[in-house]
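Hey,

The postdoc asked me to send both predictions to you directly instead of through the lab channel. I've kept everything plain text so nothing gets mangled by the mail client. Protein one:
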Amino acid sequence: MTKHESQSSKRPTAAVGVVVFRDDRVLLVRRGQAPSCGLWAVPGGAVEAGETLAAAAEREVREETGVIVKAREPVHAFDVISRGTGGEVEHHYVVVDLFADYVGGEPVAGDDAAEAAWVDVEEIGVLAVSEETARLVRRLHGTRRNG
């Protein structure tokens, strides 16, 4: 999520994740801020008021990696909820992952990403990545190859 977001409200924040492949590699970023600081994930972030999911996906990938994509259909949805020591909600994101087609550019970390890279799908388990992200990437990569 981006540095300009606020969690002052306890309402969930709508967010996107973007799954984009280039050959047998997937575009990933290493998160530089909470939540999930230090973990590798698909690029993404908060949807701004008046912005469509597709527009948010394309903007977030560009801001975090410099890569240009064309967003397609949603492929997955989930919640990210983190709680403080007293059980209070610190972050709640409702994330919709979208598929996207690679258009151009090479990854360079930007915005709140500490790193950005094309990662071979077969090597995704070597990185610090959530099991949910690993399953999603493997499932979609298999669909691409078989479809």
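Protein two:
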Amino acid sequence: MSSAASSPPQQSFTHVVKGYWNDFRREARYSFESVIAELPSGAADAPLVRRLWYFARAMFYRLTPARRAVLLIALAFLVSCFFISGEAPDSGTAPRAVFAALCLLMLLGLELADRVALKRDLELARRIQSWLLPQTPPQIPGLEIAFASRPANTVAGDYYDVLSPPAGLPATLFVLADVAGKGIPAGLLTACFRSCLNTLAESIQDPGLLAERLRKFCFADSNGGRHFTTAFLARYDPGARNLSYVSAGHNPALLRRASGELTQLPATGVPFGAFRDATYEMANISIEPGDLLLVYSDGIIEASNEAGDEFTFDRLCAFTGRPLGSADNYQKQLFRFLDDFTGKAPQHDDMTCLIVQFSATQPA
């Protein structure tokens, strides 16, 4: 009896430790990659000593000028203890060693304090971002909707939404967008994209015209095309059983027919923000009772396992072809399938999916 009662706490503790370890690996990787991005071109192919020098220099220049001075003073005192005297530290050099250690501890304390403040701000940003995304699928007659998102970092660069039509119109707008990059910069651009989209969608229902207006806003915020956004915009008219869509450089959405046939919905234009004068075509496809639409971000097909193998688009197609019933079941099974494939490998990009199951009966 006692052993059975003690098993759940042990499993829970293991789960918590594994979660902390995964968080540590993710944050360490994000910090390392952010430093590596600042290194000069060709640094990755330089000799080991030179790479370490590049890395140390990048870390040094991340400090404030005052903290750089403290670090240099501490290093100078350490050098004087160990090298200038030419012998091991003794009672005469001990005060200098203690002073150097205190300087380093003070520097570490200041950096940790900044880290705690940054962590608090990131957590607040994550909460705000969660407020901007729908938490539960809307109840729309004739449609069953499911969505899910897993950020690679605290703040994500993926955006999804289901926008109800203006009063008197039956059409529904489905949106999934992926801002290039990760973390806070991508999260800020995601918030800008959401604001523009929601403002425009109040008066524009046509996906082609909506894409044309979004193109102007996104290019203005793209820093000359450096920060682009892929997006899939689809408008469903239940009366005509028609899905009109624009895919701005996004991964091909998948439409699983009730018969089991799989249809790809390819891109109809380049990503938003990539080019000032880009044009977008609107495509139309008829929807049959029982069809299922899957829209996803590239973090799903690019998810890799411990061996470095990617999930790939082919695996996603094979999964989507399965008759799994409801949209909610598809969503849960998809992420379970991804977990089985990736195993303990760290997540490198945001993973988001939007699934729509079209009812076999015509809504009233």
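Summary for protein two, as requested: The chain has two domains: 2-128, 137-358.

Thanks,
C.
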